[in-house]
Amino acid sequence: MDVQTVSSALSEENPLADEQCVKLEKTAIKIQSWWRGNVVRRTLLHAALGAWAIQCWWRSVQTKMLEQRRSLALKLYTCQEWAVVKMQAHVRMWQTRRRFLQARQAARIIQSHWRWHASQTRGVIRGHYEVKASRLEIDIEILMT
After folding, report:
1. What's phi and psi for 140, nearest 5 deg?
2. DSSP string, 67-86
3. CA-CA-CA-CA torsion for 94, 97, 98, 104, nearest 10 degrees?
4. CA 44 – CA 36 distance, rounded (Å)
5. Distance, CA of 140 to CA of 125 (rounded, Å)
6. Residue 117 — pLDDT band, cuts 50, 70, 90?
7. Are 21 and 10 in contact (CB under 8 A)?
8. Angle between helix 15-121 and 3-13 (nearest 10)
9. d(Cα 137, Cα 126) in Å, to the nearest integer?
């Protein structure tokens, strides 16, 4: 039975009961509105707590994704830097080796020229001489090495 049915039944019987019925109806409306407010507030609280939990989860997921991106960027940067360092080391090694080979070739050329020159201008002169009365007797032997 609802409030309108009760109020209509009571209003037909007694006029004083009509005032009580109106008071009763207003009280019932206040209780119903209070209950509905509680139910709505409880529902909103559950919804807000659910939204808060989802937001916390999403923030943690975003933080993890950002950390992964940073880690990947750092790894990429490190790989690139090591590649540059290795490339520079190889270029410097190549340059140093080229200078060494040029210097070695120059030393070989100088040595070969020096050896040729030394063999042409330097010889071993062995000999002995004797002075006899009025003449000089010389025996010279030239060896080229």
Report:
1. -115, 135
2. HHHHHHHHHHHHHHHHHHHH
3. -170
4. 12
5. 7
6. confident
7. yes
8. 160
9. 14
131 φψ region: left (φ > 0), alpha (ψ -120 to 50), beta (else): beta
Structure tokens at 108: 């070989």
Pick the residue with more confidence: 44 or 10? Answer: 44
Look up residue 133 and give its DSSP letter. Answer: T
Question: Is the model's pLDDT at 4 over the cut of 70?
Answer: no
C-alpha of 106 from chain center: 48
Measure the CA angle with vertex 13, ends 11 and 15; round to 5°.
Answer: 55
Both tokens of 60, joined, read 């943690």
Residue 132 parent element (H or E): strand 123-132
For the record, the structure tokens of 87 come out as: 């490339």
Local confidence band at 118 (pLDDT 50, 70, 90 cut-offs): confident
The one-letter amino acid code at 116 reads: W
Task: Give the E-state strand segments of the chain in sequence order.
Answer: 123-132, 135-144
Maximum CA pair distance of the chain? 189
Q: Which two tokens stand for residue 73?
A: 């960027």
Structure tokens at 3: 């409030």
Q: What is the distance between the alpha carbons of residues 32 and 96, in angstroms, rounded to a whole number?
A: 94
Rounded-to-integer distance, Cα 52 and Cα 41, Å: 16
